[in-house]
Amino acid sequence: MNQPPERPALKTITKTGIYHLRVSKPKVEKVRTWDDGTMSCRVFFMDAEGNCLSQSYGTKYANSLAMMVGKMSGQYVSAFNGQTPEDYVAYVSKAAGKTTETLVEVTPGEPRDGQPTYKYKLTWAKKGQTLTPPDTF
Questions:
Q1: Which residue from 31, 29, 85, 27 is spatially nearest to 56, judged by alpha carbons?
Q2: Deepest of 9, 80, 97, 130, by most Cβ within 10 A of its Cβ?
Q3: Burial of 94 (0-12, 13-18, 19+ CB in 10 A)
């Protein structure tokens, strides 16, 4: 009987730095459809050491979703124009499982239920360039 490979314990990214993040494929039931017809879902990112974050991406501002999918998948993608949660999952799946060097800038957010929260800004290197961490590293 095959045992699944050991996975490191998950821990929230709390420090600004360069991480090699991988996108997890979202589940269809996690995609929310809003009254105006737009959709959104929290996309989960994780690196090999168990550092992780999640960030919401919606179709109301489709360029940020397209940028994330394009940079993580390594290929150009046009803006999302699907109509169903299944379309959303298929679109994000183009980036799922691929690892990309990402600069994560972390700022503390308002505590929720006594737990600290963080806001993230993700930056990917332009083609042929490397990421440079900010001076406040």
A1: 31
A2: 80
A3: middle
